[in-house]
Amino acid sequence: NAGVTQTPKFQVLKTGQSMTLQCAQDMNHNSMYWYRQDPGMGLRLIYYSASEGTTDKGEVPNGYNVSRLNKREFSLRLESAAPSQTSVYFCASSDSSGSTDTQYFGPGTRLTVL
Amino acid sequence: GEDVEQSLFLSVREGDSSVINCTYTDSSSTYLYWYKQEPGAGLQLLTYIFSNMDMKQDQRLTVLLNKKDKHLSLRIADTQTGDSAIYFCAESTGGFKTIFGAGTRLFVKA
Fold first, then answer.
1. How far is B39 from chain A (nearest CA, A)?
2. I want to staple B11 with a disulfide (CB 3.0 to 4.6 A). Which of A53, B5, B93, B107 is the partner?
3. How far is Cα A46 from Cα A56, in angstroms, rounded to an integer?
4. Least confident segment among A71-75, B37-41, B70-74
5. Per-position b or e across B80-106, b if 16+ CB within 10 A of its CB
6. Which of B47, B96, B105 should we substitute to test contact with A (largest number of A Cβ atoms within 10 Å)?
7. Number of residue pairs across A and B with CB atoms under 8 Å?
8. What is residue A78's three-state secondary structure?
9. pLDDT tens digits, residue range B49-77?
């Protein structure tokens, strides 16, 4: 039972390049989330998927797209990377049918855009 | 809008108690959480409290909630060097929206 896994762990891009961050969970959770973490700013929600087949914008969606490929997988795409997207990206999942909506986080992807 | 605020740093000596404070703005919060982040890792849930509770104790952890002042605290008794981490306060009002604070970095001095 791996929980939430993310690939890659580290990535360096040049401005304008594109890439996709992968996330998978094996807990049969309905909901999945993408956050970015910047120093002194906590976690900010980029996009979330309440259930398979749905996605919605969070607080900071500009410059990103997402795909909920199936119940397990939720990917985040940067079409044209910018230095402002240098950050640590976390994927999370939750069993939104439960009472507490506790989120389970992956280990993160550290992205640098030059 | 909703906001969660925490002090950024706390330093304590090993064996002392640590108290990490948090204030939030949304009075309709249903659950309030404390997450822990160790270096190079994702966040892990430490504990949570339902909004109709005043206190919750779990081994060395005590959570106090003052709804009137919208103030949440996490007390760690007998703090150990392994408790050094970043602690995030978060509130949930349902609707797939959890608001996280910026995190308090706890330093434990041996």
1. 10
2. B107
3. 9
4. B37-41
5. eeebbbbbbbbbbbeebbbbbbbbbbb
6. B96
7. 51
8. strand
9. 988 889 999 999 999 999 999 999 999 99
Interchain proximity A101–B45, CB inside 8 Å: no
**Residue type at position A110:** R
Q: Would residue B84 be called left, alpha or beta, if left means φ above 0 and alpha means ψ between -120 and 50 degrees?
A: beta
DSSP string, chain B: ---EEE-SEEEEETTS-EEEEEEE--TT--EEEEEEE-TTS-EEEEEEEETT-SEEEETTEEEEEETTTTEEEEEESS--GGG-EEEEEEEE-STT-EEE---EEEEEE-
Gap between the Cα atoms of A15 and A63, Å rounded = 12
- Which residues numbered 53-112 in A keep a CB inside 8 Å of some CB on B? 56, 90, 92, 96, 100-108
